[in-house]
Amino acid sequence: MxxxxxxxxxxxxxxxxxxxxxxxxxxxFLPDFEDYHSFNDLMKNASKQYGxxxxxxxxxxxxxxxxxxxxxxxxxxxxxxxxxxxxxKSFLQSFINSGIDGLVSKKAKIEELKEAIIAVMxxxxxxxxxxxxxxxKEDDHKNNFGNSKYNLNVLSKKEDEILxxxxxxLKNKDIAQKLFTSTRTIETHxxxxxxxxNLISTTELICLASKEINKV
Length: 216
Known about the structure:
Blueprint lengths: L3 E7 L2 H11 L5 E7 L3 H8 L5 E5 L5 H13 L4 E6 L4 H10 L3 E4 L4 H12 L4 E2 L1 H8 L20 H11 L4 H7 L4 H15 L4 H12 L3
Parallel strand pairs: 1-2, 1-3, 3-4, 4-5, 5-6
Helix pairs in contact: 6-10, 7-10, 8-9
């Protein structure tokens, strides 16, 4: 397996130090580490050619984060992972809906960042457990044994296929092409899946699909 070329971007020296110590000598990766001092610095580095770009949002304002989100939405050449300290659901949802490849919380173990890089390089969406718990409010969806109440057995075979493709980041149009059907039919399937799984948004469905597809 060839090494994964990764660029880590952070404005916080302590974060860069932690990333360097964990990834520098890992045989799976060919990492570069850059600090940035402004939004323009970040965008200049984000346009470089890497397999994956991981960036820390620690020093950006909310307005700058909106611009970053727009950039991600319109640029699909490189896989992108946000390494974030944010826990606000609406903020996280905005990045998931923009099509970002991975979201990893700074509260997560750094090993999850490694898992995220490998997952997105294999064309799978990846959101760490902390992010998924925030989006799905998993504490409200567990039975007395601590197991998730999401029963995927209620899905039809076609809906299982759609969930799998959602987990790989495909949009409705791409899923329709894969399954030789119309976009409208896929939209109908997704509405039915939300009802069956007791979910309230497509964002939650995307998170659930990511969680299932990245199970070991």
